[in-house]
Amino acid sequence: MNRSPEVLKFQPLGEFTLPPTPADETIRRFAENIWRTLRREKEDPFISDDSLRIATTRKLNQIVPPPACGPLLAEMKETFSDWTQDSEPAHWMQLVVLPPCDHSNVVRSWATQGGHVVIEPPDRESILNGTADVDLPEATGDGVIVIPRLEEWFIRHRNGLKLLRRLLDHLAMMQRHCVIGCNSWAWGFFEKTVGADLVLPIGVTLHAFDADRLHAWFSHLVESGEAEGKVFRLNKNGEDIFRLSGDEGSAKSDYLMTLAARSLGIPWVAWHLWRSSLRLAPKDNNRIADQFPGEQALWVAELDDFHLPKNHVSTALLALHALLLHHSLTAEELSIVLPSVDESNLLVALLEAEFVERDGDNYYCCPTAYPTIRQCLNDAGFPLDRL
Q1: How far is 153 from 149, CA to CA, in rounded Å?
Q2: What is the tens place of the pLDDT at every residue in 328-361?
Q3: Is the Cβ–Cβ distance between 37 and 262 less than 8 Å?
Q4: Which end of the chain is more exposed for a tag (fewer CB within 10 A), N or C?
Q5: Among 265, 300, 335, residue at a domain's last position
Q6: CB pairs under 8 A, 24+ apart, for 111-116?
Q7: Whole-model pTM above 0.70?
Q8: According to the model, what pLDDT value does residue 293 have?
């Protein structure tokens, strides 16, 4: 487990490729379901979920330390290092479009590391009532200007796009280095509603994290945390998820391939899914002691499934779609965006089902639930994001 994460420059928007699902995964699951149905019995795992111990957040931070953005900060630095030093670049602006649920705020973190100037958005109440007092940057000057989340400059309401239009008009006049970040759902919305793609350049985005990239990154995290020397084994069969194939040196475990496909290649989604599946070994387990004598192991449980509240699927999807567009909303803001939806009990149900999480008054979509949210929105006919 000693390969360093590969640092790749961001790629043009539209070239993102989803990681492949293991070739036999679908067939294997289908065959296993039929076999178990016919025999009416369930194969016993190597060690049951019930016997494993849940790790606390503090323990998880020691085992797999944050942030959840992997090598993306280094990749942004590699992508823009020459451009930031160019006194007469071909394009003064750069657009970075990333998947949603980026709670680490990659673009802001990159700006902070580089000592760049971050332009903060006003609060949404002032955006809505037209009283937002924002000092937009000078059109010319030195240094790099950064707007980390373009989606925080609007609210989906008839009065909620005025500030964004004003901002885009100002950006069109810029003659200095400026980086604009935006999540992929909001960017698709802005292309259609305000023609943002007519002002901003073609965006760049990350490369998908496939099994090999996850292996290199997670191995690095483990070695930099307190889990160095420990083995990560699947509870269903005891397989070491970080074992490499001998000849090619690539990830051998189907688990990482399945995780890469399940997470849609999004690093923070994969990170949260992996952490949520980590378990501590039960005390005094003879089978573990006999099979792996003297070994310190952490156990990886099956990935959880998510289910929308029954009888409220349509309204739940409307709320989740709104959260994706805005990154986060308060309950009051959600009621403004969706006046026909009673958000109070719905948000409680979505919190309980772990589709959303709350930080103060703000609600966000959970990274672990995002693949399910996206699939449900697709099945319901919502327009999807594009990377």
Answers
A1: 8
A2: 999 999 999 998 887 778 999 999 999 999 999 9
A3: no
A4: N
A5: 300
A6: 111/144, 111/146, 111/148, 111/179, 113/73, 113/77, 114/77, 114/84, 114/144, 116/143, 116/144, 116/145, 116/146, 116/179
A7: yes
A8: 76
107-116, 132-141, 170-179: lowest mean pLDDT where?
132-141
Which residues is 118 bridged to in the sheet?
Answer: 146
DSSP 319-364: HHHHHHHHS-EEHHHHHHH-TTS-HHHHHHHHHHTTSEEEETTEEE
* Residue for token pair 């680490």: 104
Give dist(CA 153, CA 5) in Å, integer. Answer: 34
> What Å distances lie between residue 234 and 162, 237, 240, CA to CA?
52, 6, 7
- Type of residue numbered 59: K
134: pLDDT confidence band, cut at 50, 70 and 90?
confident
Q: Are residues 55 and 109 in the same domain?
A: no
Q: Are residues 196 and 222 in the same domain?
A: no
**DSSP states of 84-143:** HH-SS-S-SEEEEEE-S--TT-HHHHHHHHHTPEEPPPPPHHHHHHT-----PPPSS-SS
The answer to whether residues 237 and 267 belong to one domain is yes
Q: How far is residue 275's CA from residue 387's CA, in Å, rounded to a whole number?
A: 25
Q: If pLDDT is split at 50, 70 and 90, which confidence band does 229 have?
A: confident
Q: Is 51 helix (H, G, I), strand (E, B) or coil?
A: helix
Task: Say if 85 falls within a structural domain.
Answer: no
Structure token digits, residue 97: 């479009």
Burial 186-215 (b: 16+ CB within 10 A, else e): bbbbbeeebebbebbeebbbbbbbbbbbbb
In this predicted structure, what is the pLDDT of residue 243?
84
Are 155 and 126 contacting, i.e. CB atoms less than 8 angstroms apart? no
Q: In terms of Cα–Cα distance, which of 278, 248, 222 is closest to 62?
A: 222
State the pairing for strand pair 329-330/362-365. antiparallel
Residue 47 lies in a domain: yes
